């Protein structure tokens, strides 16, 4: 495909503009306890019930690093083909806010735990590699709640101290679609690794989106604006579309872009200025003296590397090779670890080609309709396989299978049992079918006459009649054969 | 029996173990002294009821196997004590009652001691005279209207005035050793990481270290043994086996090499300080140690380095006192920013504000490299000086302070001259190495003068042994008239 044609460009009055995007993804580390304290991280608990003395910054409290979170970061780093830094440092990012109890966030500034890496996107135009600048560990802040009371702000510290990985991409993204593919791929990798559940509704995955524009063909990057804390892929795309148009309009009217932090208003579908570079916080970063530099043992890194699960790219390659899938099919099946596992379980029993069609087609449609994940599907892999096998073995027709599926998608159950209950078992006894066909031909002598005189299309009519009379259970192949023979 | 409070901690422990005196009698004796010593203003909070109850519980079922059986102890009000107000000498925490116990005090209590009260100190341990405390000046029992030093001024004062048998302080730049020197007591700043910082109101995290203050070197050894130890809750805590300092204490210092750094002979230093230093050298030599002249070339940069690193960390450590969660909150202000500004303007005293301002400045973008980063590099050079010296010597002998205790108010409005008081003590904090101040004599006004011994990392035992030699040969006697009881 021609890459040029599919390029995302903004048509300005003075020409075409390219959009340059970099993402800072904040991914909540999957961990039972917080980054520097033993408090629970369970989502949805009552406000301020998962807060330790450390999280609320009582006098004399000290942070102690959670080893599990460190391993999760290393795991993620390996998953994005990145350099793991055996020496990293926790710094304090100082600023005042009511939901930041310490008055600083413990983060990593100069020496992050993970350095440069890359991930591969599968786009309609082919694959594209997106560079990763770094990944570092940091604490989340609490939550300020402004809308519960007209004159007071409430603070919930349950999130305070939860471990986040900030994953910074290079400015390699060029369109809202690429951003979508990037976030999905990153999320998929982290879900495979079980290092972040990627749940955007619960805030486990958010991103700051850096957007700039430049004239098509320009090499120099334009001045960027950072859109803070966008928490869905759709909003990221909308924000980019809006922000890039805004920048083009400004530039074309001779106004230069001011580097600033902006907020995306999801209701008005626009970005607005939060603070300019001049008002930017001076975070006064310095190494946290309460924590020693983080030294990673080579053996630990090796051990984690050895125990890495199969990742989406590897799985895709294997699926294509072992199951002769198309790149598209493989992509769809490996995007979620659970889908891939489901598929592999189904094809242990059932026909591969049929399985792909049923899973990507009917099953996905029903999951989307209900807005549930494959693990929540009422149809378990074994039952799906059994249904598909019933088709291949000729036990039921494809049409009947759809009927069985309709039942299963609501209440699950054993397809063989449903087939029996509904009497959908295919009639494959040639004698029985012949009797049935004879009867129909007898009743439609005029049509037989017409057919024989050249009206070929009527063949379908006869098949239809047989199916109707048999309640859809007649084996279509057999019906065809017998009919053709009789109508010769 | 004569006044039990005249005894050393070690003696009292022995008497209790021999059942010659009960914990309650000891406790009552100290409480009486405290009640009569209000004029010194060494205490911020008293916990007499708790102390008496604990002493009775001890007497009813005594456990003599612990290091501090039935011993009442007052501690610096920087240690968080469960259920007992902890102020850090600040209005900001005037009514703050922790529901947790610092590791160091918890260690003391698990050795049989219990809390007698909380001792005055400079606000957030920032000061060298105990004049920055929100709860007022503390007087030096040695002489009326004289400062006890700081920041552990209340600790030193209470100890010297027999209002606690021993105590603990914290030392960020000399806050244990300087007050010990000013009050004729022994104070030890351990190796960074030997005592847990968990539950101690933080001033400058990379420098803060808790340590014992006692009347004698033996007491100091006993206290260090009780309070130190690895704490998984402090990431900078050293993971090693506890030492039996008091058991290993010996006057045998034969063959030890003692370095005398030429850079500690500062301009304008009184002759008496020079003389006491000479006296120390002489004693150690007579006891069999070898005196060696050494150089610590970066000494002159220690104080400026300290006054960048410490305020930088403090400016960040003190950000949590914002009126949101606990402690003082100003009733003025109509939004969050104003609430912050008023809370911190009204809640902190001048010296704390000064250091927050300095610290914020040196960490600011554009100044970070010139100040904070450079200070960290110089700090490494200072540490290297000591590393090099300790190839040749086992310990270093210096005066503890450039002068004896001064008058209340004398340096209050002159921060630089106040800061200069820490000139000999600050390097050990920057290097993270142990140092002890031991009384060695008095000046012409009868004010005590201390000598400082600086040791290798984890060289506390050597320091205690050397200090014991000086203590036993210096003929220093505490000459306190209890003027405040009159």
CATH class of the domain at 4-257 in chain B: Alpha Beta
Quote the distance from N terminus to C terminus of chain A.
Answer: 49 Å
In round numbers, the mean pLDDT of chain B is 97
| SS-derived structural category of chain A | alpha+beta
SS field, number of helical segments of chain B: 16
In terms of DSSP E residues, the strand content of chain A is 15-25%
Q: Would you give the CATH topology of the domain at 4-257 in chain B?
A: Amidase signature (AS) enzymes
Helix/strand-derived category of chain B reads alpha/beta
Widest β-sheet, arrangement of strands of chain B: 4-6-5-10-11-9-7-8
Principal-axis shape of chain A equals: elongated
Largest interface, per-chain counts? Answer: A-B, 31 and 41 residues
Helix content of chain A: 25-40%
CATH architecture of the domain at 4-257 in chain B: Alpha-Beta Complex
Overall outline of chain B: globular
Oligomer: heterodimer
Count of beta strands of chain B: 11
CATH superfamily annotation of the domain at 4-257 in chain B: Amidase signature (AS) domain
Poorly predicted sequence stretches spanning 5 or more consecutive residues of chain B:
none
Tell me the fraction of residues in β-strands of chain B, as a range: 5-15%
Cα distance spanning the termini of chain B: 23 Å
The largest sheet of chain A, given as strand count, sense and whether it forms a barrel, is: 9 strands, mixed
Describe it for me?
- The complex is a heterodimer of chains A (488) and B (486).
- Helix content of chain A is 40%, strand content 20%.
- Chain A is α+β, with helices and mostly antiparallel strands and 488 residues long.
- In chain A, the strands form four sheets. In chain A, strands 1, 2, 6, 7, 10, 11, 12, 13 and 14 form a nine-stranded mixed sheet that branches. Chain A has a three-stranded antiparallel sheet with strand order 5-4-15, with no helix packed on it. Chain A has a two-stranded antiparallel sheet with strand order 3-16.
- In chain A, a hairpin with a 2-residue loop joins strand 1 (9-12) and strand 2 (15-28).
- The radius of gyration of chain A is 30 Å and the shape is elongated.
- By secondary structure, chain B is α/β, with parallel strands linked by helices.
- Chain B has a domain at 4-257: Alpha-Beta Complex (Amidase signature (AS) enzymes), CATH 3.90.1300.10.
- In chain B, a hairpin with a 5-residue loop joins strand 10 and strand 11 (448-455).
- In chain B, helix 10 packs across helix 12 (350-363).
- The longest helix of chain B has 24 residues, at 369-392.
- Chain B starts with 8 loop residues before the first helix and ends in a 13-residue tail after the last helix.
- Classes of the chains: A alpha+beta (488), B alpha/beta (486).
């Amino acid at each position: 495909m021609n890459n040029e044609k599919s390029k995302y460009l903004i048509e300005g009055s003075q020409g075409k503009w390219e959009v340059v995007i970099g993402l800072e993804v904040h991914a909540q580390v999957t961990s039972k306890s917080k980054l520097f304290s033993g408090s629970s991280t369970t989502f949805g608990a009552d406000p301020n019930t998962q807060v330790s003395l450390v999280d609320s910054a009582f006098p004399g409290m000290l942070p102690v690093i959670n080893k599990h979170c460190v391993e999760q970061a290393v795991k993620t780093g390996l998953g994005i083909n990145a350099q793991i830094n055996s020496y990293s440092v926790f710094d304090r990012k100082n600023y005042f806010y009511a939901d930041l109890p310490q008055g600083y966030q413990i983060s990593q500034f100069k020496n992050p735990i993970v350095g440069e890496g890359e991930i591969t996107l599968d786009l309609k135009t082919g694959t594209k590699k997106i560079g990763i600048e770094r990944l570092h560990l940091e604490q989340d802040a609490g939550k300020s709640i402004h809308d519960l009371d007209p004159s007071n702000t409430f603070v919930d510290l349950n999130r305070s101290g939860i471990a986040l990985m900030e994953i910074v991409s290079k400015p390699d993204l060029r369109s809202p679609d690429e951003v979508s593919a990037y976030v999905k791929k990153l999320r998929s990798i982290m879900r495979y690794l079980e290092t972040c559940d990627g749940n955007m509704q619960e805030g486990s995955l958010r991103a700051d989106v850096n957007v700039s524009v430049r004239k098509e063909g320009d090499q120099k990057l334009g001045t960027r604006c950072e859109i803070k804390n966008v928490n869905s892929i759709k909003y990221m795309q909308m924000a980019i579309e809006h922000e890039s148009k805004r920048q083009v309009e400004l530039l074309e009217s001779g106004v230069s872009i001011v580097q600033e932090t902006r907020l995306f208003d999801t209701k008005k579908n626009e970005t607005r200025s939060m603070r300019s570079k001049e008002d930017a916080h001076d975070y006064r970063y310095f190494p946290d003296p309460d924590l020693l530099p983080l030294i990673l043992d080579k053996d630990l890194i090796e051990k984690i590397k050895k125990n890495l699960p199969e990742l989406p790219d590897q799985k895709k390659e294997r699926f294509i090779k072992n199951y002769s899938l198309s790149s598209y099919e493989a992509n769809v099946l490996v995007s979620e670890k659970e889908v891939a596992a489901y598929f592999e379980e189904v094809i242990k029993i059932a026909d591969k080609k049929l399985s792909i069609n049923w899973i990507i087609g009917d099953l996905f449609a029903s999951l989307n309709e209900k807005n549930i994940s494959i693990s929540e599907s009422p149809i378990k892999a074994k039952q799906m396989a059994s249904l598909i096998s019933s088709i291949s073995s000729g036990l039921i027709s494809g049409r009947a299978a759809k009927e069985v599926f309709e039942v299963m998608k609501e209440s699950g159950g054993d397809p063989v049992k449903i087939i029996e209950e509904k009497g959908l078992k295919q009639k494959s006894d040639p004698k029985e079918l012949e009797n049935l066909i004879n009867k129909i031909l007898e009743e439609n002598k005029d049509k037989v006459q017409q057919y024989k005189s050249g009206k070929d299309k009527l063949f379908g009519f006869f098949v239809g009649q047989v199916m109707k009379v048999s309640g859809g259970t007649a084996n279509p192949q057999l019906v065809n054969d017998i009919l053709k023979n009789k109508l010769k | 029996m004569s006044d039990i409070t005249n005894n050393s901690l070690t003696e009292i422990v022995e008497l209790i173990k021999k059942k010659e005196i009960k914990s309650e009698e000891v406790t009552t004796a100290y409480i009486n002294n405290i009640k009569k010593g209000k004029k010194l203003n060494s205490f911020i909070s008293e916990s007499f009821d708790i102390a008496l109850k604990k002493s009775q519980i001890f007497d009813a079922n005594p456990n003599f196997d612990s290091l501090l059986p039935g011993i009442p102890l007052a501690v610096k009000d920087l240690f968080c004590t469960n259920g007992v107000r902890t102020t850090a000498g600040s209005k900001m925490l005037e009514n703050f009652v922790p529901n947790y116990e610092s590791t160091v005090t918890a260690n003391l209590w698990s050795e049989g001691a219990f809390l007698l009260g909380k001792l005055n100190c400079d606000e957030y341990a920032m000061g060298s005279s105990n004049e920055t405390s929100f709860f007022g000046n503390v007087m030096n029992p040695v002489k009326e209207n004289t400062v006890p030093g700081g920041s552990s001024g209340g600790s030193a004062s209470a100890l010297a005035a027999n209002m606690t048998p021993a105590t603990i302080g914290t030392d960020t730049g000399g806050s244990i050793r300087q007050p010990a020197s000013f009050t004729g007591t022994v104070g030890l700043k351990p190796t960074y990481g030997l005592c847990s910082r968990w539950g101690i109101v933080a001033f400058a995290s990379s420098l803060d270290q808790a340590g014992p203050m006692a009347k004698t070197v033996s007491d100091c050894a006993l206290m260090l043994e009780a309070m130190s130890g690895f704490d998984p809750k402090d990431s900078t805590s050293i993971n090693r086996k506890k030492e039996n300092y008091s058991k290993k204490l010996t006057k045998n210092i034969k063959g030890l090499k003692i370095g005398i750094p030429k850079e500690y002979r500062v301009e304008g230093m009184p002759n008496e300080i020079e003389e006491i230093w000479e006296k120390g050298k002489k004693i150690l030599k007579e006891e069999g140690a070898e005196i060696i002249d050494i150089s610590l070339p970066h000494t002159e940069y220690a104080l400026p380095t300290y006054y960048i690193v410490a305020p930088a960390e403090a400016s960040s450590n003190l950000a949590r006192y914002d009126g949101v969660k606990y402690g003082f909150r100003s009733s003025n202000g109509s939004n969050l920013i104003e609430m912050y500004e008023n809370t911190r303007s009204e809640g902190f005293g001048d010296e704390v504000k000064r250091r927050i301002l300095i610290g914020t400045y040196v960490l600011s973008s554009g100044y970070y490299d010139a100040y904070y980063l450079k200070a960290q590099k110089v700090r490494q050079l200072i540490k290297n000086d000591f590393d090099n010296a300790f190839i040749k010597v086992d310990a270093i002998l210096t005066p503890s302070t450039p002068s004896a205790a001064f008058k209340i108010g004398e340096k209050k409005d002159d921060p630089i001259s106040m800061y200069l008081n820490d000139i000999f003590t600050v390097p050990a904090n920057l290097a993270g190495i142990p140092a002890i101040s031991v009384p060695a004599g008095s000046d012409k006004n009868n004010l005590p003068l201390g000598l400082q011994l600086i040791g290798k990392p984890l060289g506390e035992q050597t320091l205690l042994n050397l200090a014991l030699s000086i203590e036993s040969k210096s003929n220093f006697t505490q000459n306190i008239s209890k003027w405040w009881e009159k």
